[in-house]
Every structure is written in C-alpha cells, then in structure tokens.
Amino acid sequence: MRRTASETKAVILAAARDRFAAEGYEKATIRAIAADADIDPSMVMRYFGNKEALFGAAAEFDLELPDLTGVPVDQLGTALAAHFVKRWERDGALLILLRVGVTNEAVAERMRTIFAQQLGPVAAQATGNSPDTAQRAGLVSSQVLGMALCRYVLAFPPLANMTADEVVDWIGPTLQRYLTSPRV
Fold it and tell me: Which CATH architecture fits 5-58?
C-alpha cells in the first residue's frame, strides 16, 4: 500500500514519538524508528534530515491552554490543573520532552521556551500583567512539570495511583496561590 508524503511523514512521527518516549533521545535510532514505521531509514532522512530534526518535529507540541477569560479568578488554579492533567494523560509528546529534557540541554531549552511562550500569557491574564508574572508562570510550570515527572515518568505509587480528580484537587490550590496570592 502506497502512502502519500503527508501520510508517510505522519507514520514516521508517530513511530518517533513512541520510540523517543520509550528509549529517550540517546538510545533511539533512525533505523529502529524506520523499522517501527515499516519504511527504509533513508525515507526518515529524506523527510527530516537527521535525528535532531526528527526529534524536534516529534517533540513539537502545543500546551493547548484553554481560554480562561470566562473562568472566575478564584478558580484559575483548578482549571489549569485539570487542563494539564488531561493534557499529560492524552499526549505522549509531552512525556518525550519531559524524559529527554532532564538530560539534554537543547530539549530543556525547548521546554523552557514552550512553557514561557504558551503559559506566560495565561499567567499575565491571571495576574493582570503584574511585574512578577514571569516568576508566577515559572512556579506554575515547576508544579505541573514536577507532578508530571512523578506521576507519569517515575510513577511514584502514591501520585501514580491517584485519580485525575484527586491530583487536580491537590495541585489546583497550589497553582491558584502561585497565580493570584499576594507575595508574603
């Protein structure tokens, strides 16, 4: 069965996401990804050029942050917590970045950029663009990324065994405090 170029690219990206998530950046190979996609390794190189470019495409993601303008200010933390838990559970690309970002500086920088560009405006909206918006967004990121690392990557039993609603109930108030509470 012949695939179109866009179908071939999508199959390669899906295989790359799975392989990077399972093995990390260093251990994943172009040959293994090509085998998973049932294509010749030269096709991976044709579409992506090299492993770094393939990883960049596989790890491209949108936090898909919701429009929170209609959410009451005192519920922003819970709304964000619920969104992030659903997002982490739905998309392996985020886990790829998290796993690889702790050992690869280029990936870590990519994560910093994504969170700053996408979460920054949400934090600015919540804080009324206060002078400490960047710090507040950074604290929200630390909570969300720490939760994801412990729940989805390290699978700490207490956190990994909690329901999504329980996680939201626990971290929502912390995110709320980071976004709206006055600094002490």
Answer: Orthogonal Bundle (1.10)
pLDDT in tens, the chain (184 residues): 688 999 999 999 999 988 887 787 888 999 999 999 999 999 999 999 999 889 888 877 788 888 888 899 899 999 999 999 998 888 766 777 787 778 777 778 878 888 888 899 888 888 888 899 999 999 999 999 999 999 988 999 999 999 999 999 999 999 999 999 888 7
In the CATH hierarchy, which fold is given to the domain comprising 73-180?
A: Tetracycline Repressor; domain 2 (1.10.357)
Domain chopping of the chain, boundaries: 5-58, 73-180
* Residue 171, CA distances (Å) to 58, 70, 83, 112, 145 in order: 29, 21, 12, 21, 12
Phi, psi (deg, nearest 5) at residue 59: -95, 5
Distance CA 118, CA 45 (A): 30
What's the whole-model pTM score? 0.76
Instruction: Classify burial at 12, counting beta carbons within 10 Å of its beta carbon; exposed 0-12, middle 13-18, buried 19 or more.
Output: buried
